[in-house]
Amino acid sequence: MKYLVMLGDGMADYPCPGLGDKTPLEAAYKPCMDYLAKNGFCASVMTVPEGMVPESDTANLAVLGYDPKIYSKGRSPLEATSMGLEMRPGDTAFRTNIVTLSDLGEPYGDKIIIDHSSGEISTEEARELIAAVDAALGDSRRRFFTGISYRHCMLWENAPGSGISEKIYDFSRPHDILGRRIGPYLPAGEIGEVYRELMEKSFDILSKHPVNLKRVAEGKRPANSIWFWSPGVKPKLENFKERFGVKATVICAVDLIKGIGLCAGMDAPKVEGATGGAVTDFAAKGRAAIDAFRNGSDFVYIHVEAPDECGHQGDAPLKVSAIEHIDSEILTPVKEYLDGTGEPYRILLMPDHPTPVSLRTHTRESVPFVIYDNSHIREGVSCYCEKSCAGLGFYPDGTSVIKLLFGMETA
Ligand SMILES: [Zn+2]
Question: Which residues are bridge partners to 112 per DSSP?
Protein backbone atom coordinates (compact mmCIF):
# COMPACT_ATOMS: atom_id res chain seq x y z
CA MET A 1 0.00 0.00 0.00
CA LYS A 2 1.24 3.50 -0.87
CA TYR A 3 0.12 6.61 0.99
CA LEU A 4 0.07 10.20 -0.23
CA VAL A 5 -0.75 13.20 1.94
CA MET A 6 -1.46 16.36 -0.02
CA LEU A 7 -1.43 19.22 2.45
CA GLY A 8 -2.38 22.69 1.23
CA ASP A 9 -1.24 25.05 3.99
CA GLY A 10 -4.02 27.42 5.05
CA MET A 11 -6.24 26.24 2.18
CA ALA A 12 -9.56 26.39 4.09
CA ASP A 13 -11.35 29.72 4.12
CA TYR A 14 -14.64 31.60 4.44
CA PRO A 15 -16.99 32.60 1.60
CA CYS A 16 -15.42 35.58 -0.18
CA PRO A 17 -17.52 38.43 -1.63
CA GLY A 18 -15.03 38.73 -4.50
CA LEU A 19 -15.63 35.07 -5.41
CA GLY A 20 -19.44 35.27 -5.56
CA ASP A 21 -19.61 34.26 -1.88
CA LYS A 22 -17.75 31.04 -2.55
CA THR A 23 -14.70 29.95 -0.64
CA PRO A 24 -11.48 29.64 -2.66
CA LEU A 25 -11.89 25.85 -2.53
CA GLU A 26 -15.44 26.11 -3.88
CA ALA A 27 -14.45 28.62 -6.56
CA ALA A 28 -11.38 26.74 -7.80
CA TYR A 29 -11.52 24.41 -10.82
CA LYS A 30 -9.98 21.31 -9.24
CA PRO A 31 -11.27 18.15 -10.92
CA CYS A 32 -8.79 15.84 -9.21
CA MET A 33 -9.62 17.02 -5.68
CA ASP A 34 -13.32 16.75 -6.49
CA TYR A 35 -12.82 13.22 -7.87
CA LEU A 36 -11.22 12.19 -4.56
CA ALA A 37 -14.12 13.78 -2.63
CA LYS A 38 -16.70 12.08 -4.85
CA ASN A 39 -15.17 8.65 -4.30
CA GLY A 40 -13.61 8.96 -0.88
CA PHE A 41 -14.36 9.39 2.78
CA CYS A 42 -14.99 13.06 3.65
CA ALA A 43 -15.31 14.75 7.04
CA SER A 44 -13.95 17.64 9.10
CA VAL A 45 -11.24 17.69 11.72
CA MET A 46 -9.91 20.10 14.34
CA THR A 47 -6.16 20.02 13.89
CA VAL A 48 -5.27 22.48 16.66
CA PRO A 49 -6.02 21.49 20.25
CA GLU A 50 -8.03 23.82 22.45
CA GLY A 51 -5.97 26.59 23.98
CA MET A 52 -3.19 26.33 21.39
CA VAL A 53 -2.32 28.93 18.77
CA PRO A 54 -3.10 27.73 15.21
CA GLU A 55 0.49 27.69 14.02
CA SER A 56 1.59 25.53 11.12
CA ASP A 57 3.99 23.43 13.22
CA THR A 58 1.23 22.65 15.71
CA ALA A 59 -1.29 21.67 13.04
CA ASN A 60 1.16 19.69 10.88
CA LEU A 61 2.37 17.74 13.92
CA ALA A 62 -1.22 16.71 14.57
CA VAL A 63 -1.76 15.72 10.94
CA LEU A 64 1.34 13.50 11.16
CA GLY A 65 -0.05 11.89 14.30
CA TYR A 66 2.08 13.65 16.94
CA ASP A 67 -0.05 15.23 19.67
CA PRO A 68 0.87 18.95 19.61
CA LYS A 69 0.15 19.21 23.32
CA ILE A 70 3.14 16.92 23.88
CA TYR A 71 5.39 17.59 20.92
CA SER A 72 4.97 21.25 19.97
CA LYS A 73 8.17 22.83 21.29
CA GLY A 74 8.38 26.05 19.34
CA ARG A 75 9.39 26.64 15.77
CA SER A 76 13.07 27.30 16.22
CA PRO A 77 14.30 23.76 17.01
CA LEU A 78 12.47 22.47 13.94
CA GLU A 79 14.05 25.13 11.76
CA ALA A 80 17.46 24.43 13.30
CA THR A 81 17.10 20.76 12.39
CA SER A 82 16.12 21.68 8.86
CA MET A 83 19.18 23.98 8.65
CA GLY A 84 21.29 20.92 9.40
CA LEU A 85 22.36 22.15 12.85
CA GLU A 86 23.24 19.49 15.36
CA MET A 87 21.48 20.42 18.60
CA ARG A 88 23.42 19.20 21.63
CA PRO A 89 21.61 17.88 24.68
CA GLY A 90 20.73 20.91 26.76
CA ASP A 91 20.73 23.23 23.74
CA THR A 92 17.82 25.59 23.27
CA ALA A 93 17.28 26.98 19.77
CA PHE A 94 16.10 30.56 19.33
CA ARG A 95 14.76 31.94 16.07
CA THR A 96 16.99 34.98 15.60
CA ASN A 97 15.68 37.53 13.13
CA ILE A 98 17.79 40.42 11.97
CA VAL A 99 15.39 43.35 12.01
CA THR A 100 15.38 47.05 11.19
CA LEU A 101 14.98 49.40 14.16
CA SER A 102 14.83 53.19 14.02
CA ASP A 103 18.27 54.75 14.49
CA LEU A 104 17.89 58.34 15.72
CA GLY A 105 20.13 58.08 18.76
CA GLU A 106 17.19 57.21 21.03
CA PRO A 107 17.59 54.69 23.88
CA TYR A 108 17.17 51.07 22.74
CA GLY A 109 13.75 50.69 24.35
CA ASP A 110 12.43 53.77 22.54
CA LYS A 111 13.33 52.49 19.09
CA ILE A 112 10.58 51.67 16.62
CA ILE A 113 10.59 48.32 14.85
CA ILE A 114 10.36 49.16 11.18
CA ASP A 115 10.86 45.81 9.44
CA HIS A 116 11.04 42.24 10.76
CA SER A 117 12.86 41.18 7.57
CA SER A 118 15.34 44.06 7.05
CA GLY A 119 14.02 44.53 3.54
CA GLU A 120 14.37 40.78 2.93
CA ILE A 121 18.14 41.16 3.18
CA SER A 122 20.27 38.81 1.10
CA THR A 123 21.74 35.72 2.71
CA GLU A 124 25.26 36.82 1.67
CA GLU A 125 24.93 40.10 3.59
CA ALA A 126 23.28 38.31 6.51
CA ARG A 127 26.15 35.82 6.73
CA GLU A 128 28.61 38.67 7.42
CA LEU A 129 26.33 40.22 10.00
CA ILE A 130 25.64 36.98 11.86
CA ALA A 131 29.39 36.24 11.84
CA ALA A 132 30.00 39.64 13.47
CA VAL A 133 27.31 38.94 16.08
CA ASP A 134 28.76 35.50 16.78
CA ALA A 135 32.28 36.90 17.12
CA ALA A 136 31.12 39.51 19.63
CA LEU A 137 28.36 37.75 21.53
CA GLY A 138 28.98 34.04 20.97
CA ASP A 139 31.04 31.68 23.09
CA SER A 140 31.44 27.93 23.49
CA ARG A 141 27.89 27.57 24.80
CA ARG A 142 26.16 30.28 22.80
CA ARG A 143 26.48 30.10 19.03
CA PHE A 144 24.86 32.01 16.16
CA PHE A 145 24.19 30.37 12.81
CA THR A 146 23.25 31.91 9.47
CA GLY A 147 20.03 30.69 7.93
CA ILE A 148 18.33 32.34 4.97
CA SER A 149 17.73 36.07 4.46
CA TYR A 150 16.57 37.51 7.81
CA ARG A 151 15.88 34.12 9.48
CA HIS A 152 18.72 32.84 11.65
CA CYS A 153 19.33 30.76 14.71
CA MET A 154 21.05 30.92 18.09
CA LEU A 155 21.81 27.70 19.94
CA TRP A 156 22.48 28.15 23.65
CA GLU A 157 23.49 25.31 25.92
CA ASN A 158 21.81 25.63 29.33
CA ALA A 159 20.27 28.93 28.24
CA PRO A 160 19.09 31.16 31.08
CA GLY A 161 15.62 30.04 32.10
CA SER A 162 15.87 26.69 30.32
CA GLY A 163 16.06 24.77 33.60
CA ILE A 164 12.86 26.38 34.79
CA SER A 165 10.54 26.02 31.84
CA GLU A 166 10.79 24.71 28.33
CA LYS A 167 9.32 27.92 26.96
CA ILE A 168 11.94 30.05 28.76
CA TYR A 169 10.30 33.32 27.95
CA ASP A 170 7.34 34.48 25.92
CA PHE A 171 9.22 36.52 23.32
CA SER A 172 7.21 38.86 21.07
CA ARG A 173 6.97 38.00 17.40
CA PRO A 174 8.65 40.81 15.49
CA HIS A 175 6.17 40.69 12.58
CA ASP A 176 3.29 41.28 15.00
CA ILE A 177 4.59 44.60 16.39
CA LEU A 178 5.73 46.49 13.30
CA GLY A 179 5.66 50.27 13.68
CA ARG A 180 5.59 50.12 17.47
CA ARG A 181 8.03 51.26 20.16
CA ILE A 182 9.87 48.11 21.17
CA GLY A 183 10.24 48.86 24.91
CA PRO A 184 7.04 47.10 26.04
CA TYR A 185 7.84 44.08 23.81
CA LEU A 186 11.43 43.49 24.91
CA PRO A 187 12.14 40.55 27.21
CA ALA A 188 12.10 41.71 30.83
CA GLY A 189 12.49 40.37 34.31
CA GLU A 190 15.43 38.47 35.71
CA ILE A 191 15.63 36.00 32.83
CA GLY A 192 14.37 38.28 30.08
CA GLU A 193 16.98 40.89 30.90
CA VAL A 194 19.77 38.57 29.74
CA TYR A 195 18.18 38.27 26.31
CA ARG A 196 17.36 41.95 26.12
CA GLU A 197 20.99 42.78 26.81
CA LEU A 198 22.16 40.62 23.90
CA MET A 199 19.64 42.28 21.59
CA GLU A 200 20.74 45.73 22.71
CA LYS A 201 24.43 44.89 22.31
CA SER A 202 23.76 43.58 18.82
CA PHE A 203 22.48 47.03 17.83
CA ASP A 204 25.86 48.59 18.65
CA ILE A 205 27.64 45.95 16.58
CA LEU A 206 25.26 45.83 13.64
CA SER A 207 24.34 49.49 13.19
CA LYS A 208 28.01 50.34 12.56
CA HIS A 209 28.77 47.29 10.43
CA PRO A 210 30.02 48.08 6.87
CA VAL A 211 27.29 45.87 5.36
CA ASN A 212 24.65 48.07 6.98
CA LEU A 213 26.43 51.35 6.24
CA LYS A 214 26.41 50.30 2.59
CA ARG A 215 22.73 49.33 2.75
CA VAL A 216 21.79 52.70 4.25
CA ALA A 217 23.84 54.52 1.61
CA GLU A 218 21.91 52.59 -1.04
CA GLY A 219 18.59 53.54 0.53
CA LYS A 220 17.99 50.01 1.84
CA ARG A 221 16.88 49.04 5.32
CA PRO A 222 19.76 48.12 7.64
CA ALA A 223 19.63 44.88 9.62
CA ASN A 224 20.64 46.67 12.81
CA SER A 225 19.41 44.41 15.59
CA ILE A 226 18.84 40.77 16.35
CA TRP A 227 15.45 39.73 17.69
CA PHE A 228 14.86 36.44 19.52
CA TRP A 229 11.60 34.53 19.46
CA SER A 230 10.03 31.08 19.55
CA PRO A 231 12.73 29.26 21.52
CA GLY A 232 12.55 25.57 22.18
CA VAL A 233 14.33 22.29 22.73
CA LYS A 234 14.43 19.62 20.07
CA PRO A 235 11.21 17.60 20.19
CA LYS A 236 11.77 13.90 20.58
CA LEU A 237 9.41 12.67 17.91
CA GLU A 238 8.96 8.93 17.80
CA ASN A 239 10.38 7.68 14.51
CA PHE A 240 7.60 7.71 11.92
CA LYS A 241 8.68 4.44 10.33
CA GLU A 242 8.78 2.65 13.67
CA ARG A 243 5.43 4.06 14.58
CA PHE A 244 3.51 3.43 11.36
CA GLY A 245 5.69 0.92 9.56
CA VAL A 246 6.20 2.99 6.41
CA LYS A 247 9.26 4.54 4.79
CA ALA A 248 8.36 8.22 4.63
CA THR A 249 9.40 11.30 2.67
CA VAL A 250 8.39 14.91 3.18
CA ILE A 251 8.33 17.18 0.12
CA CYS A 252 8.42 20.74 1.37
CA ALA A 253 10.22 24.05 0.96
CA VAL A 254 9.47 25.42 4.42
CA ASP A 255 12.11 24.82 7.12
CA LEU A 256 9.49 24.43 9.80
CA ILE A 257 7.68 21.49 8.18
CA LYS A 258 10.87 19.96 6.80
CA GLY A 259 12.20 20.06 10.37
CA ILE A 260 9.21 18.07 11.63
CA GLY A 261 9.85 15.47 8.94
CA LEU A 262 13.56 15.26 9.76
CA CYS A 263 12.88 15.03 13.52
CA ALA A 264 10.51 12.15 12.73
CA GLY A 265 13.21 10.39 10.69
CA MET A 266 11.71 11.07 7.26
CA ASP A 267 13.65 11.80 4.10
CA ALA A 268 13.40 15.45 3.08
CA PRO A 269 14.92 15.96 -0.36
CA LYS A 270 15.61 19.48 -1.56
CA VAL A 271 13.15 20.45 -4.30
CA GLU A 272 14.65 22.84 -6.84
CA GLY A 273 12.29 25.69 -7.64
CA ALA A 274 10.15 25.23 -4.55
CA THR A 275 10.15 28.54 -2.72
CA GLY A 276 7.69 28.28 0.15
CA GLY A 277 6.00 31.41 -1.22
CA ALA A 278 2.86 32.27 -3.16
CA VAL A 279 4.69 31.67 -6.41
CA THR A 280 6.45 28.32 -6.48
CA ASP A 281 7.27 25.52 -8.89
CA PHE A 282 4.26 23.34 -8.19
CA ALA A 283 5.12 20.75 -10.82
CA ALA A 284 8.57 20.22 -9.27
CA LYS A 285 6.87 19.05 -6.09
CA GLY A 286 4.73 16.60 -8.02
CA ARG A 287 7.85 15.21 -9.72
CA ALA A 288 9.68 15.00 -6.39
CA ALA A 289 6.78 13.02 -4.89
CA ILE A 290 6.77 10.58 -7.80
CA ASP A 291 10.55 10.19 -7.46
CA ALA A 292 10.14 9.46 -3.75
CA PHE A 293 7.62 6.69 -4.49
CA ARG A 294 9.91 5.31 -7.22
CA ASN A 295 12.81 5.31 -4.75
CA GLY A 296 10.91 3.13 -2.33
CA SER A 297 8.95 5.48 -0.10
CA ASP A 298 5.61 4.10 1.05
CA PHE A 299 4.41 7.42 2.44
CA VAL A 300 4.89 10.84 0.86
CA TYR A 301 3.84 14.05 2.58
CA ILE A 302 3.62 16.97 0.18
CA HIS A 303 3.32 20.32 1.89
CA VAL A 304 2.54 23.42 -0.20
CA GLU A 305 2.79 26.79 1.49
CA ALA A 306 1.27 28.84 -1.36
CA PRO A 307 -2.43 28.96 -0.27
CA ASP A 308 -1.39 30.12 3.21
CA GLU A 309 0.79 32.85 1.75
CA CYS A 310 -2.14 34.00 -0.45
CA GLY A 311 -4.31 34.07 2.68
CA HIS A 312 -1.76 36.25 4.49
CA GLN A 313 -1.65 38.54 1.45
CA GLY A 314 -5.45 38.74 1.49
CA ASP A 315 -5.56 37.74 -2.18
CA ALA A 316 -8.57 35.51 -2.92
CA PRO A 317 -8.04 35.11 -6.71
CA LEU A 318 -4.38 34.20 -6.12
CA LYS A 319 -5.48 31.62 -3.55
CA VAL A 320 -7.93 30.11 -6.05
CA SER A 321 -5.12 29.89 -8.57
CA ALA A 322 -2.76 28.26 -6.03
CA ILE A 323 -5.39 25.58 -5.36
CA GLU A 324 -5.82 25.03 -9.11
CA HIS A 325 -2.05 24.64 -9.51
CA ILE A 326 -1.96 22.09 -6.69
CA ASP A 327 -4.75 20.17 -8.39
CA SER A 328 -3.37 20.18 -11.91
CA GLU A 329 0.39 20.15 -11.35
CA ILE A 330 0.78 18.06 -8.20
CA LEU A 331 -2.25 15.97 -7.37
CA THR A 332 -3.19 14.96 -10.92
CA PRO A 333 0.25 13.71 -12.04
CA VAL A 334 0.96 11.95 -8.74
CA LYS A 335 -2.44 10.23 -8.81
CA GLU A 336 -1.83 9.21 -12.44
CA TYR A 337 1.51 7.75 -11.41
CA LEU A 338 -0.10 5.81 -8.54
CA ASP A 339 -2.88 4.58 -10.82
CA GLY A 340 -0.22 3.43 -13.28
CA THR A 341 1.53 1.24 -10.70
CA GLY A 342 -1.60 -0.92 -10.37
CA GLU A 343 -1.01 -1.07 -6.61
CA PRO A 344 -3.48 -0.17 -3.88
CA TYR A 345 -3.00 3.31 -2.51
CA ARG A 346 -4.66 5.93 -0.35
CA ILE A 347 -4.61 9.71 -0.62
CA LEU A 348 -5.30 12.12 2.23
CA LEU A 349 -6.11 15.64 1.07
CA MET A 350 -6.41 18.45 3.61
CA PRO A 351 -5.27 21.84 4.87
CA ASP A 352 -3.53 22.25 8.22
CA HIS A 353 -5.73 25.17 9.34
CA PRO A 354 -7.77 27.91 7.63
CA THR A 355 -6.00 31.13 6.63
CA PRO A 356 -9.01 33.24 5.60
CA VAL A 357 -8.12 35.98 3.12
CA SER A 358 -10.51 38.32 4.96
CA LEU A 359 -8.54 37.93 8.20
CA ARG A 360 -5.06 37.45 6.71
CA THR A 361 -4.11 35.16 9.57
CA HIS A 362 -4.64 31.58 10.76
CA THR A 363 -7.77 30.55 12.64
CA ARG A 364 -8.40 27.66 15.01
CA GLU A 365 -11.32 26.07 13.20
CA SER A 366 -12.07 22.69 11.71
CA VAL A 367 -10.86 21.87 8.20
CA PRO A 368 -12.30 19.56 5.53
CA PHE A 369 -10.45 16.37 4.64
CA VAL A 370 -10.79 13.48 2.20
CA ILE A 371 -9.31 10.00 2.39
CA TYR A 372 -9.48 8.25 -0.97
CA ASP A 373 -8.73 4.54 -1.26
CA ASN A 374 -8.42 3.28 -4.84
CA SER A 375 -9.51 -0.22 -3.83
CA HIS A 376 -12.42 0.91 -1.69
CA ILE A 377 -14.53 3.44 -3.57
CA ARG A 378 -17.13 5.22 -1.48
CA GLU A 379 -19.96 7.58 -2.09
CA GLY A 380 -18.64 11.01 -1.14
CA VAL A 381 -19.57 14.54 -2.11
CA SER A 382 -19.35 16.31 -5.45
CA CYS A 383 -17.11 19.17 -4.28
CA TYR A 384 -14.11 19.11 -1.97
CA CYS A 385 -14.84 22.15 0.18
CA GLU A 386 -15.56 23.35 3.71
CA LYS A 387 -19.34 23.26 3.33
CA SER A 388 -19.76 19.83 1.79
CA CYS A 389 -17.44 18.12 4.31
CA ALA A 390 -18.87 19.93 7.33
CA GLY A 391 -21.98 17.81 7.73
CA LEU A 392 -20.26 14.47 7.20
CA GLY A 393 -18.65 13.83 10.52
CA PHE A 394 -16.33 15.69 12.81
CA TYR A 395 -13.12 14.56 14.44
CA PRO A 396 -12.17 16.71 17.44
CA ASP A 397 -8.64 15.28 17.62
CA GLY A 398 -6.29 16.16 14.77
CA THR A 399 -4.17 13.05 15.25
CA SER A 400 -7.09 10.78 14.34
CA VAL A 401 -6.89 11.50 10.60
CA ILE A 402 -3.57 9.73 10.04
CA LYS A 403 -4.86 6.75 12.00
CA LEU A 404 -7.83 6.66 9.64
CA LEU A 405 -5.42 6.83 6.70
CA PHE A 406 -3.41 3.86 7.98
CA GLY A 407 -6.57 1.95 8.85
CA MET A 408 -5.73 1.99 12.56
CA GLU A 409 -9.15 3.49 13.18
CA THR A 410 -12.18 2.75 11.08
CA ALA A 411 -14.27 5.49 9.53
ZN1 LIG B 1 -0.01 26.44 8.13
Answer: 181
User: Which three-class secondary structure string do you get for the chain?
Assistant: CEEEEEEECCEECCCEHHHCCECHHHHCCCHHHHHHHHHCEEEEECCCCCCCCCCHHHHHHHHCCCCHHHHCCCHHHHHHHHCCCCCCCCEEEEEEEEEEECCCCCCHHHCEEEECCCCCCCHHHHHHHHHHHHHHHCCCCEEEEEEECCEEEEEEECCCCCCCCCCCCCCCCHHHCCCCECHHHCCCHHHHHHHHHHHHHHHHHHHCCHHHHHHHHCCCCCCCEEEEEEEECCCCCCCHHHHHCCCEEEECCCHHHHHHHHHCCCECCCCCCCCCCCCCCHHHHHHHHHHHHHCCCCEEEEEECHHHHHHHHCCHHHHHHHHHHHHHHHHHHHHHHHHHHCCCEEEEEECCCECCCCCCCCCCCCEEEEEEECCCCCCCCCCCCHHHHHCCCEECCCCHHHHHHCCCCCC
> Do 170 and 232 contact (CB within 8 A), yes or no?
no
Instruction: Please answer whether residues 130 and 150 qualify as being in contact, where contact means their C-beta atoms are separated by less than 8 angstroms.
Output: no
Report the separation in Å between the CA atom of 63 and the middle of ligand 1, taken as the mean of its atom positions. 11
Q: Residue range 87-114: average pLDDT?
A: 95
Rounded to two decimals, the pTM is 0.86
375 Cα–ligand 1 center, Å: 31
CA 157 to ligand 1 center in whole angstroms:
29
Residue 7: left if φ>0, alpha if ψ -120 to 50, beta else—which one?
Answer: beta
68 φ/ψ angles, rounded to the nearest 5 degrees: -60, -30
Q: State the distance from the centre of ligand 1 to the C-alpha of 355, rounded, in angstroms.
A: 8
Rounded to the nearest angstrom, the distance between the alpha carbon of 9 and the centre of ligand 1 is 5
Distance 343 CA to ligand 1 centre (A): 31
Please tell me the least confidently modeled range out of 29-43, 119-133, 153-167, 326-340: 153-167
Name the pLDDT band for 246 (thresholds 50, 70, 90): very high
Q: What are the structural domains of the chain?
A: 2-71+237-405 (3.40.720.10), 81-232 (no CATH)
Query: Which residues, other chains included, contact 323 with Cβ-Cβ below 8 Å and sequence gap of 6+?
Result: 8, 11, 24, 25, 28, 30, 33, 307
